[in-house]
């Protein structure tokens, strides 16, 4: 592969607001070979002068669903697997074009899709998977209706289904081990009701404490972690009591529980863009008015939860949870979080903190020697204006993943 040198760059990775000015970065192969405050000699390298631009590490989205090609999760779960796979190709390419070079799938992606990206068969971000999420009978993401008599086992064979139906401590252990066998790098558990669901409402709790502890024990033995879907404070507190490390959503977290999360070093991934997208697209999606009102209530709590967690010192990772046609809202989370957080902290959530959550510190989310050459050249200053990271990558004049340009509008 060719080598590249980015000259006179201002590097912003979320570690400090001003960034590092007048830096020189050499890419060799698929890694960053050198970062220096002095010009780098290399007569064979292609050089790009980034004066006036911002150089960032590739973005990381810690809550995606790459197989959600249609907005209705129940409908998606019954689509033919081949159709779901074709949807995922489009979704993955879109994420890459927005500057997301690493994503964490929270239910449904397979190791075959990981390998398809690694082998260059399809274009997409680096993919971190849990396989199928764990769902109790009747729980959030059990898509059977009140009238269905079919077995929940059907979801296990559907690529478009987020989860698998699992009940009881022994089956929880068996299912967790099965997902590890199939290439999972963490275990996902639906431990609470849906944000606006009437089938398994927000206050409902998923799984007994013994079942949650069984999942965590299996994760510990496999040297990985458990990620839990939660909205209510009670659900978050139960997960923390079991030693669970990764908390999704946490919409109604209280200061007391946030303090516990901070003390235990948990990382929370809010996904407010998911609610915003559904509210804006309600007419097109033909959503029930009652469902929309519940979404609006949850959306309004989002910035409040961010302020609560920031005050407690909780680590926040970037996540979106958008589905179907709403994947175009993936970058909207930056602007939503800016309602409550400084821009530099929002950036950090999609770089350094996200890298910690996916357990790839020093390899992604940073610009340092030895890291993967995942780089963005941004025309505007994202610290002053987070919209620089939106508009479907419009303000990114270059996107590089693994040392290869996905987009390059730079003058050599």
Describe the structure.
By secondary structure, the chain is of the alpha/beta class. It folds into 2 domains: 3-58 and 365-408, Urease, subunit C, domain 1; 63-357, TIM Barrel (Alpha-Beta Barrel). 32% of the residues lie in helices and 21% in strands. The protein is built from 13 helices and 18 strands. It has helices at 73-77, 81-97, 111-118, 169-181, 209-221, 233-241, 255-264, 272-280, 282-285, 289-312, 332-337, 343-349, 352-357, and strands spanning 3-11, 20-28, 31-36, 46-49, 54-57, 59-64, 100-105, 126-128, 133-135, 163-165, 187-190, 226-230, 246-249, 267-269, 315-316, 375-378, 396-401, 404-408. The strands form 4 sheets. Strands 1, 2, 3, 4, 5, 16, 17 and 18 form an 8-stranded mixed sheet that branches. Strands 11-12-13-14-15 form a 5-stranded parallel sheet. Strand 13, helix 7 and strand 14 (267-269) form a beta-alpha-beta unit. The chain is globular. The two termini are 17 Å apart.
